[in-house]
Amino acid sequence: MRQGKFITFEGGEGAGKSTQATRLSEALRTAGLTVLQTREPGGSEGAELLRELLVHGDSARWDGPTEALLHYAARRDHLVKTIWPALAEGTWVVCDRFADSTMAYQGYGHGIPIDELLPLHGFAVGNFKPDVTLVLDLPAEEGLARAGRRNLGGTRYESMDLGFHERLREGFLKIASAEPRRCAIVDSTQPADDVARAVTAAVAERLNVSL
Ligand code: TMP
Predict the structure, then answer these.
(1) Which of 75, 103, 127 minimizes the C-alpha distance to 175?
(2) What pLDDT does 155 receive?
């Protein structure tokens, strides 16, 4: 049984998700909540091993379906070992990326039909969903430039073409518009302090907490 709340951050490369996840976690702790901050792919021992296989190497290392399977294997392990036990104890979980990333990257980005990803999602995740999802939005080119400045050498995903990153941005926006109660779109071209204010406002309003 879920006691804590599950909050996810989504968006393309360089959108500032990890900075904002840290800031929100701090705000929730200040409000007296117990918070676990985690990430995907990763967040458990097995999922961190799978992350290494997913984020390094040549862009053509895995085809789209193989990538989707690896992300869902990592997600299942993360849920079973980390997320579900924490929520059951009443801990709030703030996660940098979750299943919307697979729909956006492998679905919209690599072109796997969403209908083909849904059975995989059901098998690994069931009906479990985030309580709130913050979609940090900015133009793909700007995000890639920011990400390039941050980690010299880049990751496998950053080396994919601009069209891939533009498609996944549109994918996130479509997902968010289809589920406006769960998802808030936040303009990530704003200064980080303004993004943080928009994030806390969206969470406070949706989960009825004062932050
Ligand atoms: P990160 O850079 O946000 O830590 O995420 C690692 C990369 O993995 C990022 O480029 C997005 C990608 N990714 C997917 O392609 N599908 C997924 O389901 C997840 C969780 C991440």
Answers:
(1) 103
(2) 84
Distance CA 142, CA 147 (A): 9
pLDDT-above-70 percentage for the chain: 98
Instruction: State the pTM of this model.
Output: 0.97
Contact predicate 136/195, CB 8 Å:
yes
Do 10 and 104 meet the contact criterion of CB atoms below 8 Å apart?
A: yes
Helix (H, G, I), strand (E, B) or coil at 64: helix
Rg (the chain; Cα; Å): 16
Residue 72 near residue 124, CB atoms below 8 Å: yes
Closest ligand 1 atom to residue 74 Cα is 20
Whose C-alpha lies nearest to ligand 1, atom 19?
101
E-strand stretches of the chain? 6-11, 35-39, 92-96, 132-137, 183-187
Rounded Cα distance, 63 and 88, in Å? 36
Q: What is the distance in A from the centroid of ligand 1 to the CA of 105?
A: 8
DSSP string covering 69-126: HHHHHHHHHHIIIIIHHHHHTT-EEEEE--HHHHIIIIIIIT---HHHHHHHHHHHHT
CA angle 48, 113, 131 (to 5 degrees): 55
> What are residue 8's DSSP bridge partners?
95, 133
